[in-house]
From TrEMBL:
Pathway: Porphyrin-containing compound metabolism; siroheme biosynthesis; sirohydrochlorin from precorrin-2: step 1/1. Keywords: Cobalamin biosynthesis, Lyase, Methyltransferase, Multifunctional enzyme, NAD, Oxidoreductase, Porphyrin biosynthesis, S-adenosyl-L-methionine, Transferase. InterPro entries: 4pyrrol_Mease, 4pyrrol_Methylase_sf, 4pyrrole_Mease_sub1, 4pyrrole_Mease_sub2, CobA/CysG_C, NAD(P)-bd_dom_sf, Siro_Cobalamin_biosynth, Sirohaem_synth. The active site is at 196 (proton acceptor), 218 (proton donor). The lineage of its organism: Bacteria, Bacillati, Actinomycetota, Actinomycetes, Geodermatophilales. SUPFAM superfamilies: NAD(P)-binding Rossmann-fold domains, Tetrapyrrole methylase. GO terms for biological process: cobalamin biosynthetic process; methylation; siroheme biosynthetic process. It catalyses: precorrin-2 + NAD(+) = sirohydrochlorin + NADH + 2 H(+). This is Uroporphyrinogen-III C-methyltransferase. It comes from Geodermatophilus nigrescens.
Amino acid sequence: MVYPVGLRLLDRRVVVVGGGSVAHRRVAGLLEARARVTVVSPEVTPALEALVEPGSLTWVRRRYEPGDLDGAWYAVAATDDPAVNAAVAEEAERLRVFCARADDRSASSVWTPAVGRQGDLVVGVHGGGDPQRAVGVRDAVVAGLTDGSIRDRAAREPEGGRTGSVVLVGGGPGDPGLVTVRGQQAVAQADVVLADHLAPQGLLASLPPEVEVIDASKLPRGRSMAQEQINALLVEHALAGKRVVRLKGGDPFVFGRGMEELEACVAAGVPVEVVPGVTSAIGVPGLAGIPVTHRGLTHEFVVVSGHVPPGHPQSLVDWPALGRLRGTVVVLMGVDTAPAIAAALVEHGRAPGTPVAVVADGSTPTQRVVRTTLAGLARTLADEGIRPPAVWVVGDVVGLAPRLDPPTA
């Protein structure tokens, strides 16, 4: 039997021992609770590594040692070594720290429920030892809160003889609440999820343990999974009868290489569905109170990739035409190349004093907006320490924006 309780971990130390996909999923939920998370592991997934530099978590790059739980309020043992997990649990027991063992729930002093959120309401369900049952009831309660009906989700069909499929899900800017209902349903029904580090991490935290989560992150100037490998994994798991979800940030077809993934599935004879997402190009400025169009001010907007700078042989952007444009320009993946892009726009006709807004970590609790001009963009980015992910907007629409508070968790 368990006693259900909600832990308030705001600014309290939590230690996660392990750096794999299971640890990553636990960390996502802990960060949502605003805990001070320390990960102890010689290696971590690219998605976990991406959280270190902005200060979201502390990474201790070594194996677990006794004493690592000092000062902790909660601990997670999520390594692939049962002996290490047992040692973590034993230390936690001595210190009277609740500990969740990912490999042996019977040896855990706490069980993690299936969690769902609807507005400010949090639903946690324990399944009496059956994680999938807990997830099913959780999903039914959340769906009932959304549409007014309470129903249990149909049991999963056995994998034997089942035709596999792939769903390309746009995860939106990052807030799980901005994922479409169809996208949430697809993730909840998945057997395998290939996820980017920009995908909404809260959805991954709520998945049951038997769902395989594959880290398909592509870190700026860091490790990344080749697109060809991603395509091959989608096809491989689908042909094995799995329901596969490719979960990525924004919209799959807006600089998301979704078409390449769709073509790979079609070529292999795999059924594939596309679930559009809220593109960061529109959603993130909107969350900052910046419209990309406005009656009487601008009737056009252009979304460009800043992945390669003006003048680069691989660039397909007509920068002279954008310099002559009166409307709004939205730049994605353009933090490092921003100085060169701003200079090109000014060179080709845009006024140096044209307003610019940079929105970093859009839709998350750490969202922040920095306002400047094309002439001052390079200096502002450096002074403010802006790092990806960030979207920047050029045009008179920036001056319309009220100063909105960032989204709350």
